[in-house]
Amino acid sequence: MKILLVCSDFPYPPNHGLRVDTWGRIKALAELGCKLHLVVCGKQRPGDADIKAVGDYVEEIVLCPRRSKLADALRLVPMQAQSRAELGRIPLADDYDYVLLEGDYVYPILDNPRIRRERAILRVHNDEAIYFKALARSATSLLHKLYYRMESGKFAALQKKMRTRIDKYLFISNKEFERFRALDPAAQSLFLPPPVDGEAFRAGSFRTRHVVFVGSLFMPNNREAIEWYLAHIHPGLLDVPGYRFVVAGNSRGQGLGWLEAHDLRNVEVHDTPASLEDIYANGYLFVNPMRNGAGVKLKTIEAIQNGLPVVSTSVGCEGTGLIDGKHMLLADEPRHFLGHIRTLLADPARAQALLEAAQHFIRGQYDHKEVLKSYLQSLNAKLSS
Enzyme class, one word (predicted)? Predict the structure, then answer.
């Protein structure tokens, strides 16, 4: 089977949620014996070492320029998709069994004359209309709020158009899958959990009292989450011996001045760390205090894989399937969120039990390769009949 994957970002290194999901799928498809070609229309050219790493799984890599201009804001197509219009014109040498679109952003590939639309599959990372609306709520700049709201409306219109051109969907979020299935029961849609390496789970150490947050520091919803934690939770933990709040993520050079309005005693910030391994290894628990967002918060799943039990808001664990009180602790009110953290910091046995239950659940439910294999087999059976 020959599959073309179309991405809005180079999938390697897998250092944030979108890349983690896409990279895991590339490896799974290669292990299933598929011949893979990759087209990427992103902002930056990847390094030679990153291209080589992907080349071990992919037969051919095509890098497509992303072009954007201010006038694109006046178009009806979302700027994130319009800037990738070149996908509709790039030469493609092969006829593919399937074309896997990694998100709505790469929609223009369907305009390419070499693409057979009936073979297109969309990986839904987020409901982009909902996601951009959430970003508008989190943004502090009026200009950014306007941009996100405009993109949200455009994505809502694009999604309706896409349903007339694509009838195969793979959802990363079970919640969004159920909502879509109720809307369009005739589509060949499926919940495909994010890829998880069943051999890579780490045990919790609970040696420190470090509370960890990992997420892109340039995203307004992550910034909002960190500031909410610093304002409402952090002051109530400063009396805990050994407590530190450890924040790590990529700022894309946008600076971290927004943190200066808060009490940064016992706060440790790692801007664009080369590795998260030591941060996870030295952590006690993970917090995901997000207030706005959509899709699955892969940061929550990754923290559990890396040996940290989780305290989260309802948004922070949305779409994961994790159960409050059994796999993690959930709270949206500051006093309850704070209480959960204090409880786990004082009770390593309780923290360990939550972590083990969460890891057991993920091992059992997040078998990405087997679900993907069954889905492709079902598609082939329908094509043959």
Answer: transferase
